[in-house]
Every structure is written in structure tokens, then in C-alpha cells.
Write a structure and sequence with these properties.
Order of helices and strands: EHEHHHHEEE
Structural class: alpha/beta
Radius of gyration: 16 Å
Strand content: 15-25%
Oligomer: single chain
Number of helices: 5
Shape: globular
Number of strands: 5
Length: about 120
């Protein structure tokens, strides 16, 4: 099954509405399996998903890595920059970094920008 994470640029109120909607669907007995991440500005989303970070995210999705050092070597990039990128993507919830290594659990990323935010 394909898993998609939906990235939103929006407000706390919009984020709350998504949460409340999912909660109400659960109360009605519906299955809710969705992942949403909210950024409060387009700039924050774009800096988190810079071209280099998006390249790293795609690579890790196809080829999970054991360590940042291994990942930096494979990508031919500086360790510190790869470490910073992995940290930023993990902080955003796009990469999982644990005792099993570094992996990207989503098959796709959808970006949604609210014009009301």
C-alpha cells in the first residue's frame, strides 16, 4: 500500500480543522489513515524541502542508510551538510532516524498551499 504525506502551508486553525475532521470520522467508526504536516509559511516548507534535501529524501526512500556517514559517502556530499539535512527532514517528520538507520517511510509527498493563510 502506498503511503502519502500531505504537506500544508496554512494556519493553526486549518491544522485544527483537519485534526477535528479526522477525530469526527473516527467517532463515526471510519478508518483514518492519513499523515499531514503543516508549515506556517511557504518559505519554511521550501527551506525544509530544498532541492538537495528533496534529492536526499528520494535517495533514502529507495536506499535506506545505516548512518549519516554512509549516506554522505553514497551521495558524494559533505558529512556536516548531510547531517544537517537529515536532522531537518527528521524534525519535519519526513525521515525516520532510529536504531534501524535512516529511512523515508512515505512513497509520495503532496504539497498543499492555502491562499487564506
Amino acid at each position: 500500500m502506498s503511503e502519502t504525506v500531505r504537506l500544508h502551508v496554512g494556519s493553526i486553525e486549518e491544522m485544527g480543522k483537519r485534526f477535528a475532521g479526522a477525530w469526527h470520522r473516527l467517532e463515526r467508526g471510519k478508518t483514518v489513515k492519513e499523515t499531514h504536516l503543516t508549515f506556517f509559511s511557504l518559505e519554511a516548507m521550501m527551506s525544509t524541502l530544498s532541492p538537495k534535501r528533496l534529492e536526499l529524501l528520494k535517495h533514502v526512500h529507495r536506499h535506506p542508510a545505516g548512518t549519516v556517514s554512509e549516506l554522505a559517502k553514497t551521495l558524494g556530499r559533505d558529512y556536516k551538510r548531510v547531517h544537517d539535512d537529515v536532522s531537518a527532514l527528521a524534525h519535519a517528520g519526513l525521515i525516520v532516524r532510529d536504531e534501524n538507520g535512516i529511512r523515508a517511510p512515505y512513497d509520495s509527498v503532496q504539497a498543499i498551499v492555502s491562499l487564506d493563510a
